[in-house]
Amino acid sequence: MGANCRVGKFTVIEEGVTIGAGANIHPQVFLGKNVKIGQQVTLHPGVKIYHGCEIGDHVILHANVVIGADGFGFIPQEDGSFQKIPQIGNVVI
């Protein structure tokens, strides 16, 4: 954890997380394994960042944003149903 960081109550920080200097992490944030948070980042209450995602310097994520969750990975089938497509990458902002 870098210098001058603030971490709010009920925040979960899993193993391998790095947090840059001056980060402001509000309450009830979840940072999954090996997440990287840059310098001067602000994570508002309830932000969830899933494992392996990277957030660069000077980023602001507003309340309840979820980074790294499955996206719209579905392909329509001939019968009108949808088949899930595996989401295998990670997010880098």
Fold blueprint:
Blueprint: E1 6-7, E2 12-13, E3 18-19, E4 24-25, E5 30-31, E6 36-37, E7 42-43, E8 48-49, E9 54-55, E10 60-61, E11 66-67, E12 74-76, E13 82-84
Parallel strand pairs: 1-4, 2-5, 3-6, 4-7, 5-8, 6-9, 7-10, 8-11
Antiparallel strand pairs: 12-13
Describe it.
This protein has 93 residues and is an all-beta fold. It has a single domain (6-84), classed as UDP N-Acetylglucosamine Acyltransferase, domain 1. Helix content is 0%, strand content 30%. A hairpin with a 5-residue loop joins strand 12 (74-76) and strand 13 (82-84).
Short description:
The protein has strands spanning 6-7, 12-13, 18-19, 24-25, 30-31, 36-37, 42-43, 48-49, 54-55, 60-61, 66-67, 74-76, 82-84.
